[in-house]
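Hey, can you fold this one?
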Amino acid sequence: MEQKVQYLYETQNGKYVRNIGFMRNERSLDKCTLVIQARQMDEVIGIQLRKETGEVYLAKWGERELEPEMEAEEYVLPSDIKYEKISRQDLSRLPRREWRIANNSFLLHGYHNYHHLLYIEENHQIWIGVPGIYHEKEKVAATAFGFTEFKRISDVEIVLEEEETNAFEDFGYWCRRIEEKREE
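Sure. Predicted structure:
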């Protein structure tokens, strides 16, 4: 059986707004199973699936109509967000006063499990992301060590090796703001 997982995004005006969950596609010889796990999806009226060959599949709930001839929008990520996969040693490029983060127990745990960290520049802010899964127990630990936000990053934004991710859980990054990026 082949299995693929992709993040599910809310979009507005052709741009990704936020991650709301994930979709898992499991294929065997004679069937395909699509599992969608999402949060905060009020008033869903249906779903449209489009194959690369142009075929369209629709499912609808309620009386509202879906238009099969609607073209899929090309979604682009905001250009003011940059992601970079880094090693623990790369934390030395942070301001000296921030170097202590390299010994943060939560960061060390995530780095040990997934073999990388994430450097994020967003709206003139610098963040460090520790890979992990979203779970209430994990949230308590992350918050205790200063990593208060959870961001899900798609394959479009950063390429991960198999040992650097978790395709079976709600994978993402527990993030901590480092400083405001200075203009040069």
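The radius of gyration is 19 Å. Let me know if you want another pass with a different chain boundary.
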